[in-house]
Amino acid sequence: MTINRGxxxxxxxxxLLELDLVLARFLEQEFDCxxxxxxxxxxxxxxxxxxxLWAFINGSKPCEVxxxxxxxxxxxxx
Amino acid sequence: MNVAKRTFDALIVGAGGAGLxxxxxxxxxxxxxxxxxxVFPTRSHTVAAQGGVAASLGNTTEDHWHWHMYDxxxxxxxxxxxxxxxxxxxxxxxxxxxxxxxxxxxxxxxxGKIYQRPFGGHSMNYGKSPVMRSCAxxxxxxxxxxxxxxxRNVRANTQxxxxxxxxxxxxxxxxxxxxxxxxxxxxGEVSIFHSRATIFATGGSGRIFYSSTNAFTNTGDGLGxxxxxxxxxxxxxxxxxxxxxxAGAGVLITEGVRGEGGILRNANGERFMERYAPNLKxxxxxxxVSRSMVTEINEGRGCGHDKDYVLLxxxxxxxxxxxxxxxxxxxxxxxxxxxxPIKAPIPVVPTCHYQMGGIPTNYKGQVVHPKLGDPNTLVHxxxxxxxxxxxxxxxxxxxxxxxxxxxxxxGKSAGESVVEDFKAGQLDLKPLPDDAADMSIGRIxxxxxxxxxxxxxxxxxxxQRAMQKHASVFRFKDLLKxxxxxxxxxxxxxxxxxxxxKSKVWNTARQEALELDNMIEVAKxxxxxxEARKESRGAHVRDDAPDTPEHPNGRDDENWLKxxxxxxxxxxxxxxxxxxxxxxxxxxxxALAKRTY
Lengths: 78, 597
Hints:
heterodimer, A: mainly alpha, 59% helix, 0% strand, B: alpha/beta, eight-stranded mixed beta sheet, four-stranded antiparallel beta sheet, 16 helices, 22 strands, 21% strand
């Protein structure tokens, strides 16, 4: 099933300003270039708890899920 | 137009701490309860609250709710309503212990009690010495609280409508509140949520300022809906600012950085706080530091191309100390300011943090408005709690840890009021007017049909810059006056917003346009209320109302010891008295005095 990109965009709304800012940059710079597989990984990653997601992005907590690692690396650059 | 309708006993808009606490009260009482939320509940901004929740448990040091009440009234600069403040401080232990029973993982003392830590503004013996009153779960109190409340709501079978955005409040010809219209983001369809009782718990509106610590979701939706439906907004001139947000991003740099030796400097490299607070210097209170920073910027000693920020310098600390004690701050500075604080100072500005005003309520969470000479007439069927409401417990300035307490106490209280009113047979399901959904459908139709106009993002930035320039942490007579004209012009522009994307489902551009409508209401309320209040009080500090023997701290109780009410329909203001009498005879009123620490 095709994932609606608008839905994923909305799910970038988070509880922490830090995440909102990083995800906003990602939406602007990278999001439109994601292929369907990458989009699915990104949507899956967005299900994480906000503090975990922030810790993955800032590197303070290692991510154990292999398929998320590439997208986290791209988020970390935003 | 045929609009789908759902019917409930109780409807809650917002699933942060206040909404979830209210929902629990209703669901556990057996009422058919719906909660609408724009985002998944555990992504509400309550998650960002770190400090703790105040309660005079006295687990670590002696404490009493009388002292907590005194601190809160003093913190409010006497603008808080003493009946609501008594209610909140007396209820604090109960709601915290309830939360403990819901599974909230509070920090513990060695003997197993809830550990309590000191926090600014909280004292024992009426200001004599610091008290340990803040109950915390490490530095993630809001996060732990929201998860505990959400899980409890799932257990209580609360029905959640997630990724639904409430659009407008529905009132009948007599002013009774009958529910809301809401947009399901997944389908783009508008529905009516018809309810006996409606509770707003939509949080704050801090995104109206250019520099804000608030997450993007804090767009004041409840305030916008209430204002458009004719409900006044109370005390909107009072906003709490944090001195050190990263310039251009807003992310908070904790006071702990200055505690570790961080120094504020102007464009000349001068440690300017030595001039403003010779003893405490960079560790002076938040409001003093913020005003000093703004004065430096206004007098041309700001940094950068636009001279619009100052610098927080920790380069004199050893890299080892920075890496060990402030690793999170280094990460934030590198990411959001592009500066490694080991090598260069961090650009910072006073940043909007919390909204003290809101939808006027009494201590029971019932929304009130002026009618036939009574400023506290109930609005039938309408309740509000948390940051969107004004009970008023924070008055003109909130104490840290009282916001999480506010949402627990008044979330529960609003829920209890609905249950009581329901059981008393006072909440009949009143018939919907034929035009119940017309306003919302009209707003969406305009966005669909609008050809050309103002980009939503541009209007939002114009609003945010106007608020930052004219109504920030330190206010000036002429700037406020110009600000009113400026914001009304921006508001006119908001009526003609245009979106390129006309699609129906998951249209984030449309959602942002609808949110902007709400923020504009809050911005107008703030600017107009602030321009009108000619004194300084709490967080509202005017250059032309300085500290004098006649008016200590610039406060003018003779003329301004009153709550502001702003009405959207014609931007007029009314005022109502502050409730200086506590709820019971168990405590004496806290007499007016100069607020000093």
